[in-house]
Design a protein that fits this description.
This protein is of the alpha+beta class and about 200 residues long. Helix content is about 30%, strand content about 35%. The termini are far apart.
C-alpha cells in the first residue's frame, strides 16, 4: 500500500515537472522576438517579407507594412504614389516620420503620420493620408528600394514593385494622372468582352 502510494506521488511529481518545462519553453519561444527586438533597437533588420495580395508584406520590429506598392503616373511625368497599409501591433502609439525611395523625393501627408496603438493607417493617393513621389524614373514592372523611418519602430527598407495606373490601381494613381489615359486602359481591358457582345447581337439580328 505504502509502495503504491509512493509510486503514485512520484508519477504525479514527474508529470508536473514536465508540464512546467513545456510551459517554460513555450513562454521563452514567445518572448524571443520581443527580446531580440529590444536588443536590436530602432535599426533592427526586417524579419519577414512575403507576398500579400498584390503588394509586399513586411514585418519589422514594432510595425507591419502590408500590400506595399508604388503606382506610376502619366508616362514621362516622373510622378508616382505609394499605396499600402501600416499596422501598429503595439500598445504604444507611433509615428511615420518619413518615406524615402531611390533617387526620388517623397512628400508625406501629413508629416509626421500618426499611427495609433493597435491601429492601422492606409496611405493612398487622393486621401487625407498619402505619400507622393516626385522625380520618379522607374517604370512599371521594376522594383524600387523604399525606406520607412518611424519614431519608435525599426527603420525598414524593402524593394517595392512599380505598377501602371490601371485596373484596381486606377484610383490610387498620383493626383493629376490623365483621366483619359485611365479610361483608355479600362476600355482596352473590356474590349474583348465588348466585341463578343457585339458579335452576339449581330448574329441574333
Amino acid at each position: 500500500m505504502i509502495l503504491s502510494l509512493a509510486r503514485l506521488l512520484f508519477v504525479n511529481y514527474k508529470e508536473a515537472a514536465v508540464k512546467r518545462s513545456v510551459t517554460l519553453f513555450a513562454g521563452l519561444a514567445l518572448m524571443m522576438p520581443l527580446i531580440s527586438g529590444c536588443y536590436a533597437g530602432q535599426d533592427a533588420e526586417t524579419k519577414l517579407q512575403t507576398r500579400s495580395g498584390n503588394g509586399y508584406q513586411v514585418s519589422a520590429e514594432g510595425m507591419l507594412i502590408d500590400n506595399a506598392t508604388i503606382v506610376a503616373g502619366n508616362k514621362g511625368s516622373n510622378e508616382a504614389a505609394f499605396l499600402g497599409t501600416l499596422y501598429n501591433p503595439t500598445y504604444e502609439p507611433d509615428e511615420l516620420l518619413s518615406i524615402t525611395a531611390t533617387d526620388s523625393e517623397v512628400t508625406l501627408t501629413p508629416e509626421p503620420l500618426e499611427l495609433p496603438a493597435l491601429g492601422a493607417v492606409t496611405l493612398r493617393s487622393g486621401t487625407e493620408t498619402q505619400a507622393a513621389l516626385a522625380d520618379f524614373e522607374a517604370s512599371p514592372g521594376q522594383y524600387v528600394n523604399v525606406t520607412f523611418t518611424f519614431r519608435s519602430a525599426a527603420r525598414t527598407e524593402v524593394p517595392v514593385l512599380v505598377v501602371a495606373p490601371y485596373g484596381e490601381y486606377v484610383d490610387a494613381a498620383p493626383e493629376g494622372t490623365d483621366e483619359a489615359l485611365k479610361e483608355i486602359i479600362i476600355v482596352e481591358e473590356g474590349s474583348e468582352g465588348s466585341e463578343g457582345e457585339t458579335s452576339a447581337e449581330s448574329s441574333t439580328e
